[in-house]
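Weekly structure sync, notes
Attendees: PL (lead), two postdocs, one rotation student
Agenda item 3: pending single-chain targets
PL asked that the sequence for the first pending target be pasted directly into the notes so everyone works from the same version. It is reproduced below exactly as submitted, 284 residues in total.
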Amino acid sequence: MESIRYSMNYENCSLKCQLKNPKPPDDEHRRIIMSVKDELYINPTHSGISLLEQTYKGYSWPCAVFGPIWFAAKNMQLLALILFLPAVATFGLIDPLYAFFANRAYISFLIKKGYTPLLEFIKTDKKYFKVDSQISNKNALDYQNDILPLIVPYVTEPNLSFFPNIPVNKLSIAMEDCKVPENEEIVVLFDDSFLRSSRRFFLIGLLGLYFFNSDSSEKPEPGSISYKDLSNKEITKKGNTEIDLGNGDFFFVPDFIPINSMLVLLDSFKKAFKEKFQRTESES
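Predicted structure, written out during the meeting:
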């Protein structure tokens, strides 16, 4: 009898704890009430809406509010026209139902337009991201296999350009200001410069990283670090705007990149180079 009473008390206590501290909703439940980011899609032929398109999954609240207008804004005019008459007939009351399939419809639309998930495209395509470079030593990273997967979270930033879509004029200015050596091949450019007198550059090459510290920093001057040197560095945050690279060198993080994101990115490059170096050593 005592054991039964103890068991019931324990279960009641457990139930109360669960009510007070409910488990966070998993992805399936979260997608029912809100949209969450899905994959990035790329159209390398540029025959679609744009080069890159961010997709979402789950319930689309913008569609629930705007109904067929949402589909028209996504260039799905035919579907918008089909859904327009029921929306008018119900005075917009049917619009929230459209939101259940809106994101899936948009992904299907992109695929028909020639879009492919970016990560899948990076792994399978052998031509679009091919860099014609003479750099082929063990101190270099491969653009498609090593660098591109690391910058995918940032490719929708308006200040970022990546090969083969880097504007030539911007690249030449950035390379000159950052003192990039002639034997380097730049594949990614972060450019937040408003004017030439207000320079904010961060360049990613096959051999290393290059930057120009903001004019508002203590040392507004160019800097660089090779992947080989980076792999042996202890990178630390210095305040809210600077990253200490050791030996008196520091990198002034541009406003458009959160400093914690930059720390993660630099650490990812360290790991990528170490893995590449280990592979090269084991193969030789």
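Discussion points:
- The radius of gyration is 25 Å.
- The first strand starts at residue 35 and ends at 42.
Action: rotation student to compare against the earlier draft before next sync.
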